[in-house]
Amino acid sequence: MKDEEEPEYKINLLRGVSIERIDRANKIVVDSRGVKTSYDVLLIATGSRAAVPRNVPSLPGIFTMRNRNDADSFKKHVPQNGHVVIVGGGLLGLEMAASLREIGIKITIIQRTSRFLNRQLDALGSQLLHEEMADQGCDIYYDDEIQLFYGRSKLTGIGLKSGRKINCDAMILAIGTTPNFEIAKECGLECRRGVIVNERLQTSDPDVYAIGEIAEFNGTLYGITAAAEQQAQVVASYMNGDIASYYKGSLFMNIIKIHGFDLCSIGLPECPDDINYEEVVFTDKAKRYYKKCIIHQDRLVGAILIGDKSEFLEFRDLIANKTELSEKRLQLLRSGNKADPVLGKLVCSCNNVGSENIRKKIDEGCHTLKEVCAQTGAGTGCGSCRPEVKRLLDEALQSMLLAKAV
Q1: pTM of the shown model
Q2: Structural domain harbouring 350
Q3: Would you state the pLDDT for residue 337?
Q4: Could you tell me if 277 and 271 are in contact, meaning their C-beta atoms sit under 8 angstroms apart?
Q5: pLDDT for 384
Q6: Where are the beta strands (DSSP E) in 94-210?
Q7: Has residue 156 been placed in a domain?
Q8: CA Rg, the chain, in Å?
Q9: In terms of Cα–Cα distance, which of 45, 25, 46, 42 is closest to 207?
Q10: End of a domain among 177, 208, 227?
Q11: In what order do the strands lie in the sheet with 157-160?
């Protein structure tokens, strides 16, 4: 949404102002200016911050990656062909490693567990991912963690639990996030790992809602954009009188964005047991191609795609809609339709959709964001590209209106 559109939607956005206290008894919030604002309904969506262990010193050269300022500071600090240690082998850490290798930065990855993405992939998937990162020139240390930091005016090296010392120019912490739910705790809302919410996204106070990375639903924190959008839609619909609107949880999707390497996982990565679940698997280790489908009661409940993610959207919909497979089961391992080539500037790296792919679908009659996303696949992965997709849509529709006027 553009700034000038806010009054139309009756939005009053206060920039540079934070909420310091919630007074639930009087239904008032107090901001950083000391101003009190009353509310009928309060929505808390304070997000999260990068997780930083307590023993990490405030030393130049140690970075997290949560915003543009982090990236700019890092870029200024690291010399050309420098050496960067990345702590954490999750999606962020691996994507950072691959991107930095492309510009000639030496990379060392420290992973606390025995393999990459152990909650999102099975053992073979992790192995293929390891091979890809090793081929890109990354040094990788598993079952290890940092214990010592070297340097006075700036970081010059790190010491591992295993006893190894590694000299480096910088370190990136990519070990997850911590929900910003302190303000919710302080006002007495029920919290565990996050703020406890029900199927309406209501907290223990029915007039206070929580969504996004701070909301804990049925013991789960969903740290993905798609979940936050789904939660926001549930709250908006319910407040608008739709009593049938409730949250059922979100489907876990993981897509790694590494140039030239396709990998995604949806739902369950492994069978919980061998009696009620079954696997359908195709593997070509030499070409680093792997497709695995997990089936429960004739429904697809999980999938791993490595080497070709063109079936991501189809599989995601089968899992999300709990569709009975019947004859489709026979087609699961057959290659799907070849994905359209990327046309124009890359907009969606999850599903390889370019700006011209989007404009083409708009010209063919897709005139809403929902239609464009459904037809192209853009914005249906992590969701971070949706603002750019909407901008392209608005731009195209405006051009159409001007052309008609002429």
Answers
A1: 0.85
A2: 346-405
A3: 56
A4: yes
A5: 80
A6: 106-110, 139-141, 146-150, 157-160, 165-167, 170-173, 177-179, 195-197, 208-210
A7: yes
A8: 23
A9: 42
A10: 177
A11: 146-150, 157-160, 165-167
CA distance linking residue 159 with residue 149, whole number of Å: 6
Strands 139-141 and 106-110: parallel
- Written as one string, the DSSP assignment of 12-57 is ---TT--EEEEETTTTEEEETTS-EEE-SSEEE---EEE---TT--
Both 81 and 1 in a single domain?
no
Q: Are strands 289-296 and 299-306 parallel, antiparallel or unpaired?
A: antiparallel
For residue 391, is it within any domain? Answer: yes
Count other C-beta atoms under 10 Å from residue 156's C-beta: 14
Verify that 300 and 396 share a domain, yes or no: no
State the pLDDT at residue 338: 60
Which helix H or strand E contains 161, and what residues bound it? none
Same domain for 17 and 75, yes or no, is no
Q: What is the pLDDT of residues 233-287, one digit of tens each?
A: 999 999 999 999 999 999 998 999 888 899 999 999 999 998 999 999 999 988 8
Whether residues 287 and 321 fall in one domain = yes
Amino acid making up residue 300: L
What are the start-end ranges of the H helices in 267-344?
A: 312-320
> Could you say which of 145, 177, 209 is where a domain stops?
177
Name the residue type at position 45: A
Q: What is the residue type of 303? A: A
> Looking at 324-363, which runs of residues are DSSP E strands?
346-348, 353-354
Which pLDDT does position 8 carry in this prediction? 87
Same domain, 159 and 67: yes
When divided into structural domains, the chain yields a total of: 4
74 near 98, Cβ under 8 Å?
Answer: no
Give the CATH number of the domain where residue 367 resides. Answer: 1.10.10.1100
Domain membership of residue 151 (yes or no) is yes
Check whether residue 156 and residue 91 sit in a common domain: yes
- The CATH number of whichever domain residue 324 belongs to comes to 3.30.390.30
CATH number of the domain to which 129 belongs: 3.50.50.60
Tell me how far apart the alpha carbons of residues 224 and 241 are, in angstroms, rounded to a whole number. Answer: 27
Low-confidence residues of the chain: pLDDT under 50: none
The pLDDT score that the predictor gives to residue 406 is: 67
The reply to whether 252 falls in a domain is: no
Distance CA 103, CA 137 (A): 12
